[in-house]
Amino acid sequence: MAKKESSFKNMVIALFVISAVASTTLGFVYEFTKEPIAQARLSKKLNAIKMVVPPFDNDPNADMYTLPVDGGEALEAYPAKMGEELVGVAIRTYTMNGFSGLVRLMVGLSPSGDITGISVLEHKETPGLGTHMSDEWFIAQFISKNPGKNNIAVKKDGGEVDAITAATISSRAFTDAVQRAYNAYKNSADAESGATVIKQDTTQLSKGGNYE
């Protein structure tokens, strides 16, 4: 009996030591790889921004702001500037309507809302079908279109976009993410414009201006 108790005790001690060593090793690995992983993610994000907006000389990542979305997570907006002039904004957008759920895109918009570029960041769509959303021919359909003027939907739904063959759901998801980026940007621009008008009106009132 004593021998069995001793063996069980040794097993417990061995398992404890193995767990402690494994945890310590994982901790070291995490600390060692944390910075390179963060740098790789930042580099990937900056490359995506460069792909979807005109040339810029600022740091869009440092100037990032968020765009609220009704009933969903806020979108990240990366303004691209040349000097003091805003030349475009890259918006990290998403949809949950992909064939396999989440699809993330980086959508570039001009200050007026025209699409300047799109880069696919993340998806789990079917290989050989939904994965074609990254193809140049598919993305080219969106360039220079303005979702406020053009119907950014697949042709089956009355829009202007040719869906990917046998991947209509993925195509719809793509258009949904693009439209979400535009809507968030437009709503933000309208809000800022309204705030500017109110501020200007208040200034005029303080000077005794007349208003109808």
N-to-C order of helices and strands: HEEEEEHH
**DSSP summary: helix tally:** 3
| Mean pLDDT over all positions | 84
Low-pLDDT segments, ≥5 res: 195-212
Structural class: alpha+beta
Strand content: 15-25%
Number of strands: 5
- The 3D shape can be described as extended
Strand order of the largest sheet: 1-2-3-4-5
Major sheet = 5 strands, antiparallel
Radius of gyration based on Cα positions: 25 Å
CA-CA gap between termini = 99 Å
Work out the helicity level. 40-55%
Number of structurally distinct domains: 1
Question: Can you put this structure into words, describing what you see?
Answer:
- This protein is of the alpha+beta class.
- It has one domain (53-202).
- The protein has helices at residues 2-52, 136-140, 168-206; strands spanning 65-67, 75-82, 85-98, 101-109, 115-122.
- It has a five-stranded antiparallel sheet with strand order 1-2-3-4-5.
- The radius of gyration is 25 Å and the shape is extended.
- The termini are far apart.
- The model is unreliable at 195-212 (pLDDT under 50).
Write the SSE topology.
Layout: H1 2-52, E1 65-67, E2 75-82, E3 85-98, E4 101-109, E5 115-122, H2 136-140, H3 168-206
Q: Which structural traits does this protein have?
A:
five-stranded antiparallel beta sheet, 212 residues, alpha+beta, extended
Task: Write a concise synopsis of the structure shown.
By secondary structure, this protein is of the alpha+beta class. Helices cover 45% and strands 20% of the residues.
